[in-house]
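Might you be able to review the protein record set out just below?
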Amino acid sequence: MRTAFDLSPFTRSTIGFDRMFRLLDSMSGTGDAPSYPPYNIVKHGDDRYGITVAVAGFGEDELEVKVQDGQLTITSKPEKAEGDVTYIHRGIARRAFELRFSLADYIEVAGASVDNGMLTVDLVRNVPEAMKPRTIAISKGSGRKALTGAKAA
C-alpha cells in the first residue's frame, strides 16, 4: 500500500532542491497549493533562479527582503490608508504577509526589484572553486613511486 505525502509546503519554500523534490513528487503525484500573495519560482539556468511575488498596491518602502542563516524572508508592512476611504468592493488585498524560503547551500541573493506590481528576487548558486569537481591529470609512469622520506626496512 502506497501513502501519498504532500510535499507542496516544502517545494513552495525551498530553492535549489528542485531535482530532489521533482523525484519525490513524481513518485507521490502531489502538486502545489495556492497561497497569499501568489508567487512563482523560476529556474533560469543551472545556477540561476528567480522568485516573483505579486505585490500589487505595495510600494518599495513597504516591502523587505532579508537573508539570514540560509533562509530568505520576504515581508510586507503596509502603511495605513490616508483619509476617509469607503470601499464598496475591496478586491486588492493589502494585508501584511511573510514568505519564507529555505535556500540550498551556496544559493545567494543577487538582487531584488519591483516593477509593475511584481517583486522579483534574483538568486544565484555560487559554488566555491574548492567544492567544484576537478579533473586530475594521470601521468604515465612505471610502477609505484616510493613516498618521499620513507626508509626501506
In short: The beta strands are 14-15, 39-43, 48-54, 63-68, 71-76, 98-103, 107-115, 118-125. Residues 69 and 103 are 9 Å apart (CA to CA). The radius of gyration is 24 Å.
